[in-house]
Design brief:
Elements (H helix, E strand, L loop, with lengths): L3 H9 L2 H48 L4 H10 L6 H5 L14
Helix pairs in contact: 2-3
Length: 101
Amino acid sequence: MNLAPVTLLAAELSSNQTFVLSIMAMVFAVPVVGIIAGACRKSVTTREREQTRREVAAYVAEGSMTADEAERILRAGPSKAGAADEWNLGFSNAKPAPKNT
């Protein structure tokens, strides 16, 4: 592969043009990476959900869990906790400071 045209183009660009092109490349790359990361996350979430369903079905099949228990577990869904609850930052147990009057 001949890279001579690319080398010539890079040599003719000024530092301002190079800076602008770099910024434009980053502005384009960040959303693309975000979209790819979101798709990967959704794929992993779906795969894990299906794995959980298979495991629960296996427990029901072997008799260690009733069908009603399995249905309750599968209907529970994801937690609705907020970010502070999820990361347990310690703010949930904080007591308000006493008022000095």
